[in-house]
Amino acid sequence: MSKVKITTSLGNITVRLYDETPLHRDNFLKLAKEGFYNGTLFHRVIRDFMIQGGDPDSVNAPAGKRLGTGGPDYTLEAEILPSLFHKRGALAAARQGDEVNPDRRSSGSQFYIVWGQTYNDGQLRQMGKQLEMQRLQGIFQSLAADHRAEILQLRREHNRTGLQELQDRLVAEAETKAKTLGPVLTEAQMEAYSSVGGTPHLDGQYTVFGEVVEGLDIVDRIQQVETLSGDRPKADVVVVQATVLEG
Question: pTM higher than 0.85, yes or no?
Answer without folding.
Answer: yes
